[in-house]
Amino acid sequence: MSDDDQLFRFVQFEFPWIIGPDPGRYVLRAPGATEPAFVLVVATLGAAQRRRLGAKRARDAEPEPEPVPVATTRATAIAATPLDGSTAAIAWMAATRRAPAPVIADAIAAVNRAIHAHRVAAADGAIREVSRDRAIALRIGYGRGEQVADGRWSEAADIPAPHGPRKRRSAALRPQERLAAMLGGREHPLACEELTLRARTDVEAGRLREAAIQLRAALVAAIGELEASPGGAPDMGQRIAELRGLRPAIDEAADEAIGGVFAAPERERVVTTLERLEAALRARSAAGPVESAGGAGESAAGPVESAGGAGGEVAP
After folding, report:
1. Count of CB atoms within 10 A of residue 160's CB?
2. First-to-last C-alpha distance (Å) of the chain
3. Does the model's pTM come out above 0.90?
4. Burial class (CB in 10 A: 0-12, 13-18, 19+), 99
5. What is the mean pLDDT of the chain?
6. Per-residue pLDDT for 294 more than 70?
7. Taking phi first (over 0 means left), then psi (-120 to 50 degrees means alpha), and beta for anything else, what does residue 126 get?
């Protein structure tokens, strides 16, 4: 990236927190590759000023304190392969404006790879990956090497947040109703739910070996927990039987993953089994609270109205 005549593509994200890696430039290569795929530039913007670093005791807080300024992380994923001149750059930019999703996905994967490596190197499990939806700003563009590394460009576009499909009010209320039930002690989250989320994170990040090992634990927990607490889903028995049938293949995939060998068929098994497990958990959740001391539809703020009227059942 030392030749100022070459033009490089970039995707730039801004997140309202410290994502993990220290500010600097990081070269990302695929495992076993000799050529870099991305150069990731991490910068911290607007860091809060530290005061009274030498204070040895607590001080009185203001009754109505001002919000503390937060640091913003700017992560710029720069494709290591230059564009073939300005004509190619203009054409790439026009095509990317029309369909930015694949370019964004590759860049997010690069950022998350750096975050994951930092989490492992620092042995800090509190550091988590990011998603496109968590960014407060997203830009795509191109420019000369040192130009884009310094946060500048020849041409760039601000990409708005995607608009997902509009949810029915009843569907939107379901997570909030479960949250109120769990916080109120009327429902307990299952261990398999958290394990399944971790497996999904690994799959989305392309860590299929870790996903296979994680999914085996999630599947074992799910079969036991769903049998003990199936919820109100009428077909839960069939779903549990399906999960039992999928377990031998996942046991084999996890064993191969531990041994360091992971072929394409195992990848497909992991993704398919994870989807079936997620479907079973969604069915259990959509059926309504498992236990409710205050009655169906009750939340921390009082009765929740469904799409059909006050106090009615919440549709899946």
Report:
1. 8
2. 52
3. no
4. exposed
5. 85
6. no
7. alpha
